[in-house]
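Write out structure tokens for Ribulose-phosphate 3-epimerase.
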Amino acid sequence: MAVKVAPSILSADFARLGEEVRAIDAAGADYIHIDVMDGHFVPNITIGPAVVKALRLHTTKIFDVHLMIDPVDPYIEAFAAAGADIITVHAEVGGHLDRTLQLIRSLGKKAGISLNPATPESVLDYILDRLDLILVMSVNPGFGGQAFIPSQLEKIRRIRAKIGSRPIELEVDGGVTPAVALECVEAGADVLVAGNAVFSGGSGQYAANIRALRA
Ligand code: DX5
Ligand code: ZN
């Protein structure tokens, strides 16, 4: 199956977010990747449920909501109500991951888990059957435009083997450019998140940028 591309709106023009989401929808985005940061789990603050809700009116595409927040449990219902389709939490947050994943599915949403570059894939061993998506961070989360960390390719390979025949998507996020996209797919990634690589050159370029990632 063809690789999916999930543009990260972190690299969009925040003053024109609705328009930007419509532009990447028209340009062929599979998912809309929404990076939520709290200034605590990561050293940056971005957007909350109110913005997700406002953007919901601009596209019917899947909202792939990446929560880089700790604590995360108190906010999951709000993101679900705002229109998230996939809700991904970090393995490194404090609390009870197994319970958090059950909470997400109990709200009728797809449950994802994200691993920072230093986090080993063994954290997945006892929660695989609660997962719809695994997100491998190929940068340290917090900012767009960082360089891809090559050691994560081996992690993608190992996770692909762990997934086996389960219906779990494997997503890679951070520093993904056309230059590394093929290696990510060969290692086993199904979904490529890309911020700068999609949003560079203005909206006239978005479709070509997405095609370049798929090529
Ligand atoms: C990083 C975010 C990523 C990132 C992607 O914390 O989770 O989604 O913004 O942007 P690029 O592709 O520019 O690294
Ligand atoms: Zn992300």
